[in-house]
Design goal:
By secondary structure, the chain is α/β, with parallel strands linked by helices. It has four domains: 3-50 and 376-476, no CATH class; 55-70 and 488-582, Luciferase, domain 3 (Roll); 133-272 and 325-340, Rossmann fold (3-Layer(aba) Sandwich); 588-719, GMP Synthetase, Chain A, domain 3. 36% of the residues lie in helices and 22% in strands. The protein contains 23 helices and 28 strands. The chain has an eight-stranded mixed β-sheet with strand order 4-3-13-12-14-15-16-17. An eight-stranded mixed β-sheet has the order 9-8-7-5-6-10-11-20, with helices on both faces. Strands 1, 2, 18, 19, 21, 22 and 23 form a seven-stranded antiparallel β-sheet that branches. The longest helix has 19 residues, at 399-417. It holds the Pfam family AMP-binding.
Length: 721
């Protein structure tokens, strides 16, 4: 993630946690906070009882160790009777609560540009309060848009693509397409030209629905697109009309114009079937051109139904902050859950989410402060930056502020882990008032549950955020191929590093991978490749039967299974832990196997690391690494160490800097019990961040290994030279 995005999550913590020493003030409060829970714990101390969350189950298909959610005997397929498709779920949910808040958007009051010391210009915005549309109003808008699509020539045999950042109109267009059984192709707004052309041509899209700012991107590739007839853009600042004439012979319309067209020419809905393809979702992909995953309506409603059972008391009183890409399965699944449960969804962005975000004008509230959400989703990279920001500010303040934070953190940690179980309630209240309330205020102060997915979340970050935010983190495991519906940790599970039991819509089976040394008969925990079966497993890859047959299987009972390539192990309570990945295994010169993903996960917790890619060459006995260091951490070290430099790239090339980072990686690796050959023998520090726009990481901030290897081929070769 770029610095501008990273600062979205670092700077608010740096500002908010750093209240003056005097704010913590009265020593008596600290004494009360420390002594009372200790005294109570003597009387109330207890041991948390284990809870069975997943149980073995007999299933068909390839032999392995299979588990289902302990709360069900049969897989969950729908959230309620009649909601068998996304179109039906949407209509029933809207009609059940027509006057309730549904979609919220902030109005832009004004914009301005500020110039940084290096001459670069940055846009700052002043945003107003959230303006809401009700469930009934959104149903009407989606219906009008659907009728407008028919008037433009759409029918069940055509496809529309949504090529846009996350916003309310994205979801309205999405649901509008379904009301006429039009399959939606979802494409990341950050996708490169080649992948964009490939996605649109392969699916023979006839209409592109996009942000006005992306019209320029479409204009550049008009001659390469074979089937486009219509472009519908979301109105923003009026500049979109300047590009309308450069889009060839396509019909260009604003979103509101299509709504008006449909309102004047209403068409009865033509609703889809459960097994019909709702979405062709193009993954950002870590290798080559993106693959289009065919997601059925049944897949979406099954995941929505299952996740609803995991989040306690989910309903109309909840407010969800939406800012992650809707073209990613994680965000689309989360918003589908909110729709099914009747929650309000307020839209924001990574650049405006907090009061001190990079795009927020000073004195203006960020999205979280204005919305005060109770629920939000995050990818691990964001939560890692939140943790880093809090720690930095606490270190900077020092004194009583640092001491109180550290004492409070340790006490809350002890409470969560069971040492002071009886004192948890009082302890939580006391430390919230004294310390953690300031941290929680950054995200509005009302967060009660966080969803995390898209990549593995480190145990340290999970525990840290759980304690500082005072809310459980539901860490999920899923893939585009399972519409995010595989496993999800439950709200009362205080363990870390695991992804919970199977969701109630799925079975998870571990199939032995003998080459890697993982067997479903392993003791004390079965291990093997994670294979997901059930209602969330998608139909396969669009126009790619060979790849589909490679990773999707149908067993003798008719159940569909997806072979993930991930390696997992089941704990005795039925919770899954992801421990490796087949594709990341490299055999070194002397026969040792190294798991690149495992090593990267361990080393990414080092304080200097912003991004890391470990590389292993089978003709050598050691591995190397490309590291994007954290600017602030490295610059602070340079100042203390007296290292002089003009620009950041000079600091990265300095031999003393490289040695410092490498020594830190070695310490972190040893603490994580990595073998000597797993700790990079040489590293290269890179000054430029890896962003989705650069094509070096996915939208979920997973590294694109092949692209990185190609771009930094010379650097990798030099480290092996």
């Amino acid at each position: 993630m770029a610095d501008s995005e990273g600062s979205t999550f670092e700077s608010p913590m740096l500002e908010k946690v750093g209240v003056s020493d005097g704010t913590y003030g009265i020593v008596g409060a600290a004494v009360v906070a420390i002594l009372i829970p200790i005294l109570l714990s003597v009387v109330l101390v207890g041991k948390k009882k284990g809870k069975l969350r997943g149980v073995p189950v007999e299933v068909g298909g390839e032999a392995g160790y299979a588990v289902r959610n302990a709360r069900i005997s049969e897989l969950v397929e729908v959230p309620w009777k009649g909601a068998t498709t996304m179109a039906a779920l949407f209509e029933l949910s809207c009609k059940a609560r027509p006057r309730d808040r549904f979609l919220g958007t902030r109005k832009i009051i004004n914009k301005e540009f500020v110039t940084a010391s290096d001459g670069r210009k940055f846009e700052k915005v002043h945003l107003g309060d959230y303006e809401w549309q009700t469930y009934g109003e959104v149903l009407d808008r989606a219906s009008h848009f659907a009728s407008g699509l028919v008037k433009l020539g759409h029918d069940v045999d055509t496809r529309a693509a949504i090529f846009s950042d996350t916003r309310a109109e994205w979801l309205i267009a999405f649901q509008g397409c379904f009301r006429q059984d039009v399959t939606v192709v979802t494409i990341y707004a950050s996708l490169g030209e080649d992948a964009l052309v490939h996605s649109l041509n392969e699916t023979q899209v006839t209409t592109v629905i996009c942000d006005s700012k992306l019209l320029k991107k479409l204009s550049a590739i008009t001659s390469s697109l074979k089937t486009i007839k219509n472009v519908i853009y979301f109105e923003d600042d009026g500049s979109e009309t300047d590009l309308a004439g450069s889009l060839g012979n396509w019909t260009v319309s604003s979103f509101s114009d299509v709504e008006k067209l449909g309102r004047s020419n209403p068409v009865d809905p033509s609703l889809p079937s459960k097994n019909g393809t709702a979405v062709i979702m193009y993954t950002s992909g870590s290798t080559g051109l993106p693959k289009g995953v065919m997601i059925t309506h049944g897949n979406i409603v099954a995941t929505a139904a299952a996740v609803q059972t995991v989040i306690p008391k989910l309903g109309r009183d909840d407010v969800y902050l939406a800012y992650l890409p809707l073209a990613h399965v994680f965000e689309l699944a989360a918003e589908s859950v909110m729709l099914a449960a009747g929650c309000a969804i307020g839209y924001g962005s990574t650049l405006t989410i907090t009061d001190t975000s990079s795009k927020i004008k000073k004195g203006t509230k960020g999205d979280a402060s204005a919305l005060k959400p109770t629920l939000m989703a995050a990818v691990p990279a964001i939560l890692d930056r939140v943790r880093e920001g809090v720690v930095k500010k606490v270190e900077e303040k020092g004194g009583i502020a640092k001491n109180l934070f550290n004492i409070g953190y340790k006490r809350r940690l002890a409470a969560v882990e069971g040492s002071w179980f009886g004192a948890w309630g009082l302890e939580k209240i006391l430390w919230d008032v004294i310390v953690f309330k300031k941290v929680r205020a950054v995200l509005g102060g009302d967060i009660r549950f966080m969803l995390c997915g898209g990549a593995p979340l480190s145990a340290d970050s999970q525990r840290f955020i759980n304690i500082c935010m005072g809310a459980p983190i539901g860490q999920g495991y899923g893939l585009t191929e399972t519409f995010a519906g595989a496993a999800f940790s439950e709200w009362d599970d205080t363990t870390v590093g695991r992804v919970g039991p199977p969701l109630p819509c799925s079975y998870i089976k571990l199939v032995s991978w003998e080459e890697g040394g993982y067997n479903s008969s392993d003791k004390p925990m079965p291990r093997g490749e994670v294979v997901v079966g059930g209602f969330s497993v998608t139909a396969g890859y669009f126009n790619n039967p060979e790849k589909t047959d490679e990773v999707y299987k149908v067993d003798e009972r008719g159940m569909r299974w997806f072979y993930s390539g991930d390696i997992g192990q089941f704990h005795p309570d039925g919770c899954l832990e992801i421990i490796d990945r087949k594709k990341d295994i490299v055999k070194l010169q002397h026969g040792e196997y190294i798991s690149l993903g495992k090593v990267e996960a361990a080393l990414s917790s080092a304080n200097y690391v912003d991004s890391i890619m470990v590389h292993a060459d089978p003709f050598h006995s050691y591995c190397v690494a490309l590291v994007v260091p954290s600017h602030k951490v490295l610059e602070n070290w340079a100042q203390e160490a007296g290292v002089k430099y003009e620009i950041f790239s000079e600091l990265c090339d300095n031999a003393k800097t490289v040695s410092e980072v490498q020594q830190t990686l070695s310490k972190v690796g040893k603490a994580a019990k990595l073998d000597k050959f797993e700790i990079p023998a040489k590293i290269k520090l890179l000054s430029e961040p890896w962003t989705p726009e650069s094509g070096l990481v996915t939208a979920a901030l997973k590294i694109k290994r092949e692209q990185l290897k190609a771009k930094f081929k010379d650097d990798l070769q030099k480290m092996y030279g």
